[in-house]
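Final report, results section. Input specification for complex C-07:
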Amino acid sequence: MADQQHLPDQLPAAAAPQSRTAARSWSARVLSLLPFLLLLLSAGLIASQVRRPAALLTTWVPWIEIATIAVSMTPIVMLGGIDLSVGSAFALTASVFAFCLQTGTGTLPAIAIAVMAGTACGSLNGTLIARGSPPLLVTLASMALFRGLTMSLFGGERILVEQSFQLPGPLQLRPQYYLLLLVLAVLQIIVHHRVLGRWILATGENRTAARIAGIPDRRVDLLCYATCGFVVGLVAVLNVMQHNVAVPDAGLGMELQAIACIIVGGTVITGGRGRISGTLLGAAVVSSLDIALNFLSTRFPVISLESRMIVTGILLIGIAVSTQRTAGTHPE
Amino acid sequence: MTRSVSIRIALVLCLTLASSGCGDNTAAQRIRIGMLPKLVGIGYFDAAEKGAREAAAELDIELIYDGPADARHEDQLRIIEGWNALGVDVVAVAPNDPEGIAQTLRSVSDSGVRVISWDTDANADISRRSFFVNQAEDSAIAQGMVDLMVAARRQKGLPIAGPYLIVSGTPTASNQNSWIRLMTEYIADRYPEMELLPHLTPGEDQREAQEQTATALNAHAELNGIWGITSVALPAAARAVMDADRTDSVCVTGVSLPSLMREYVENGSVQSFLLWDVVDLGYLTVQVAARLHSGGIQPGTSDFGRLKNIEVRDGMVILGPPMVFDSDNMDQYDF
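Structure output:
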C-alpha cells in the first residue's frame, strides 16, 4: 500500500503531466518506449512475411478474443484484484451454449443462458472476494471448479453445433472485432469519465481510505467481476458460433495471456493505476510478437516452439518490469 | 500523455505500411506448403517430418512443418490461420479434432488455399478438403491384424477356437472403431470359431490400458489372444500378459510403433504387429500437396516420386497395404 498522503495525486486525471514527466529519468523514458519498439519490430516482421494480408484479420481473431477479455479484466486489476478463472469460465459458457443449441433451445435463449452462466461465474468470484477472500485464492479455486464443471457436466466431450452461423459483419470483420470495440468504448467511458472509475482506482490504491471516504468498495468488487464474467460469456458465444464446436479444454492459459496484455499495457498489478486503452496497446504488443515469432519460425525452423516461449517470456518480463516501474513513478 | 501515445501509434502504423510495401516485392515464388501434425516432438510425427523434408528437397518447394506441443485442437486452428496469412498454397493437416477443425479448413479453402488431410481425415463434407492421404485402408489393417493373430496361434501350435479381446483407445476414436467393425465382420466370415469379447476402451493411457487388460486376463482364464489397436494399447497389453505370466497361452498383436514394441518382440511375447511406413506417409503427403498445386490428381494409380503405383480413389490417396513388423525388419525403422 502506498502512502496515504499521495492519494489525491494518484487519481489519474488529477495527476499533473508536467511534474510527472519532469520527474522521470532518461532511462525510464527509454524503457517506456520499449513496448512501442517491440510493436514496431513485430509489425515490420509480420508485414515482410505476409503474402495474403486480408487473411491477417482472421489470424488475429483468437487474439481479439483474448484482448476483449483482457480489457474487461482491466478494472479488476485496477482494483488490485485478478481473475484467473476466465479461461475456465470461457470453456464452461462455450459448452453451456453449445449444449443448449444441441438440445434444441433457440439461438437467442441459448445466448441468454450462456451469457447468464458467464455472469454467474463472475458473480461467484465477486461475491466471495467482496466478503474479503483474496482474489488470487478465490479465482484459482474457481478456475479448477469451472473446468471441473465443464468436464463433468458434458462428459469431457466436445459438443458439436449443427446450426451454421454466417456472421461476417461490414468490412468482412468477424463479430469478435465489433465486440472488442464495444467493450473498449463502454469501459473507457465508465472507467475514465464516470465516478465509478474513480471509485475503482481509489479502492485499488487504498481500500481502507476509500471505504472511509464512503466508496461502496464491495459493490464495486462485485460489479467488476460480474462484468468480466459477462464479457467472457459473450466472447465464448461468438467463438462457438464461429467454430460450431465447444471443446472442453478451450481457453487453457487464456487467463495468463490476458494478464500479460494488461501488465504490458501499463496497468499496475497492485491496483490503483492504469488505462483501459493501455490494455489494447498491450494486447497489440503481445499478439503481434506471438504472430511475428510464429511467422519467423516458418522461415527458420531453429526457432522452435520452446525457444519462442523463452523469447516471448523474456521480452514480456522486460516490458512488464519497465512499465510497472514507470507507471509506479510517483511525483516528488 | 494521451497525445504522445497516439503520435507513437501513428508512427508505428506508418512504418508498418511502408515496410509492407517493401515486403511484397521480395516474396519468393516457390510453392509454399504448410504441413501440420497432431503434435510435434513424438517419434511418429518426427518420422513423418523426415519423409516430408525429403520430398520437399526433391521437389524444391518450401515446406513449413509445425504443430502444437501437446495435441491441442485450438493451437492447430491458430497455426492454420497464421499460415493462411503467410500465403501457403497448400495446407496438409492431421487433425486432432476432425469435426472441430472443419469450419476453419473451409474458410481457409474459401480464401484460395488447397487443403488436404493426412494420417486422420477431417470431416470431408464441411472442410472441403481435396484429398485424404490415407496410410492404409481400414479393411487391410483390420484383416491384417486378424491374420497375424491366426498365424501366431498356428505357429505356437495352439487352437484357433476360443475367446479373444480387443483393447482400443478412446470410445470415439474413428480409426479404431472402424477397424473393430471390420475385424468383427471378417472374423464372422472367415474364422467363426473365434469368439470376440466386448472390447475395452481405456483411452490413450498406457497404465489404464494395462490395468484393464490385467483385469480381463483374470476374468477369462481361457483367453486365446489380445489385439492392442492403438500405439499405446499394444505395448500395455503385451506388458499385462507378461506380468500375468501367460505368454505361452495368450497371443498378442495389433498396431503400434517399432520403438515401443522392441522389448516385447525381443523377448518373444509378441511375434509381429502391423504399421505403415510413417516416413513414406510424410513423403507422400508433400508429394500429393505439390501435385495438387501444380495440376491435379486423377483417380487411378500413379507414381509419386519414389513411391510407385499409389492408388487414388474416393477422395483418398492410399499409401498401400500396411507393413508387418517382426524381429527381422524392426531394427531398420527408427520411429
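Chain B touches chain A through 46 residues (CB under 8 Å). The first strand of chain B starts at residue 32 and ends at 36. This concludes the modelling results for the funded period.
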